[in-house]
Specification:
heterodimer; A: about 600 residues; four-stranded mixed beta sheet; B: alpha/beta; five-stranded parallel beta sheet; two-stranded antiparallel ribbon
Amino acid sequence: MSKRHIVVDPITRIEGHLRIEAVIDENNTIVDAYSSSTMFRGIETILQGRDPRDCGLLAMRICGVCTGTHYQRSIEAVEDAFDITIPKNARIVRNLIQGALYVHDHLVHFYHLHALDFVDVVSALSADPAKTAEEARKWAGVAGVSPYTDGESEFKAIQERVAKFVKQGRLGIFGNGYWGNKHYKLTPEQNLIGVAHYLQALDIQRDLAKMQAIFGGKNPHPQSIVVGGVTCVQDIQNPARIALFKQLLSDGTKFVKQAYLPDVYMAGTMYADEATDSKATFTELIGGKGVGGTGGGLLNYMSYGDFRLDDTGFYKAKTLFPSGIVYGGDLSKVEAVDHEKIAEDVTHSWYEGSEPLHPYNGQTIPKYTGLDKRDDGIAYLKTGEKYSWIKTPIYNDTRVEVGPLARMIVGVASKDERITKYVTNFLKRGNLPVSVLFSTVGRTAGRAIETELMADVMMEWVDELAANAAAGDLRTWTEFDFDQVSVKTKGMGLAEAPRGSLGHWVRVENGKVANYQAVVPSTWNAGPRDYKGRMGAYEASLIGTKVADPEQPLEIIRTIHSFDPCIACAVHVVDTKGKSLGVYKLDSQCSI
Amino acid sequence: MAERIDGVRKLFTSKSARVDTNRGDLYYQQLFDTCRARLDALREQPAVNRLDFDSLLTDEGQDRREFMKWVSAVTAMLMLPPMFTPLVAEAAELMNRLPVVWLELQDCAGNSEALLRSDGPKIDEIVLDIISLEFHESLMAPSGHQAEKQLEDAMEHFKGNYLLFVEGSIPVGAGRDWCTIGASGETFLDHLNRVAENAAAVVAVGACATFGGIPAAAPNPTGAVGVMDVVKGKPVINIPACPANPANMVGVVLHYALTGQVPELDSLLRPKFAFGYRIHDNCERRAHFDAGEYVEEWGDEGAKNNFCLYKMGCKGPMTFNNCSIVRYNEGVNWPIGVGRGCIGCSEPDFWDKYAYERPMANANIKAPTGGVEKTVDQFGLGLLTAAGIGIGIHAVASAVAGKREEGGEG
């Protein structure tokens, strides 16, 4: 039987521009997939020749979503090169800025970038508000809390607000969604809970962003981190600022525990079929070990580790998230990460290069070979050649997945007490086996577990900061002699972003940047095939997924969104044999 | 919130705004008539059902008084006399007729994120009650061809009437074909031109869309430029900064709804209501500048006492923006508040000229009011004269010293 290509372009509710081409067989099951980023800016090239102290501000603009993470990694790469250990206050402030981002970013991702893959907004209009309140209590009960939104009247008011909006005639951002697709599985009441929390989370995220602004000056793109420490000394010593931070964190935590986690239980249970190992085709195609469900993908998970808990310096301090690698979903073993084994391959990326290179030696020389434009108005990736602006990171000659789920899995495999406790609690409350984590739904659950952990631990940190300042320690910066340390050196900033392992590598010569390379989470996950033809995490995760309606490839965007992509995307379904696609209605509609 | 709005109103209407806010009764009467006609025309538009704002306010548990307070603050922010307040209120009610298309090109989504942080009005009010956000890749529900269709529909349905917001720069040089969007592989350049063609006006938000931003920083590998270098024959409004302040985005939307015209712009197409004065003019650390008290290194005694950051590279004296008044994240903080100087992100080429951790004494800068180039030294002297305070010798001296150290930079 002939195979068909599905084209989804653009994939929205992500950051950036990404394109995916997927091939489905006669049963609408995805048998092949290609991931491609279609935007190039060349920031690594722009950083060359600049003063290393200025890199942080520029490198931060790689992304306005994981804003501040690139900033910190870039500054740390320079600090590593200059062998600077920052003061305690600076370490805690940076942890708080990053931690605030984790909670903020995960919440925005779940509700505003991902929820509409699970929640049918139109269906919510026919919900019974009284039953909705009952349903909300039920799922809050699973999480062991009282519901964030309680009471019939509150749900009724929200439903009426949405109904009024719909009656105005233009649905705006909700227009033309996949509403009514049979792979939406929530009841109208559950959908109303989702819509209510979507709207409430818009308020909550604004408050969570303020936490970053307290010590960072603004969000997005904070500005208080400098090589050697931080600048926000007046905010550290101001009890009102500390109190505001705690208040915002406390309010945000309430929403995380009483809305976010219950909603993940609700969605996870209703979509449980997709999280369990019922897809023989999936294991056959990937060669996995029989764990996980739809969207499991590579099953190799890596974390660089992040959030230093003491002041012994880079790569020596104990970290909140341990670093390590778990292969094949096997939680009984964890390997240490050796940064020497990281390499980037450009076989299928639009760059010059012939072999995988370590980032210290990495190059960013564009070699664009274009798309295969056909008569039907659609352009296809030249998948046998180069087809993405994303490079292909390889660890120890293996493709790995990074992200919150990877951090949870590495944490559990490393027998980290705190992480194991949060993961175990989550699974116990939901009465779930650990194998559910190895799936699209599990990736979303991993993010929720991490959000709760992060919110709790930040409260400890802010108290630690306040106590340290109150005891008279206001040191925020470590002095260094720029002229001396910047003659010839190199350093790396390797840690985690909300989306996964993120590293910046810098070589400095005579006070200027000689080479700069960043390998970001979405590079690990969204990278194209490698030199051996092996798939990246996005590509692998789509294999074996059944698409209910190729006209509305909801399942594709659901799985891609579960990674929280930080690129602009596009997904395509095309003919493997290169046949004209004009015969398929969906293809002709895909062209702009 | 209310205190901040009052503060904003005072500052916007004060003389420090350096914008001609008293242009005579005749001018304002004519503008008033234009607005009146515009709003009447909007009201007549059959496109969508009219929003019943009174009942909406009641439903939302807000009262009219609160709303009017917000309206009067917005009127002041737009630098219009109080007689315009009822018109602004009316514009706010009619704004659900203002369709908005938001494109992302060579961007980092920072401006989209900033829009999410909008507090006056809040983002849910913006999306549900105020504008019709027809297309926005980061927020919209549909993907793929359904998303494309949504855009096509909006372009057709609101032909000539939608506001086009653009985030991100456009490669027109070597990288012209490197950035594509959609199944057909349309270049960013073609995409922008096509969507801009039937827009009423184009609003470039953020440093990248206005002046090229970071992709255009040297050596500009893709040949990136801002919207105004691409879109011709169409009003273009620039709201620079990295990211743009959501208050300024909303200000432009309101002004457009009210008047059907772009707000008064400076020579760089920036609305004067937001970019009519320097960061330095209203900086909370200004008194320390005048007193010659500076932070000399990160974390020193000066830093602990909130001294002026000029010697740590603050570009506030040469940067036109309202951050020092509006601030960020509901006024919680701003860069100078956290002890890091302004990086000049609302000025063209700031990545190559301003964003250094050192003072820049010899940068050429344009004053928005007349397009006259001045150096920092001249600015410093001008400011001192204007303020009538004679103590900033220290700053000028350090600016000159900085010039020597920096050699030919800038």
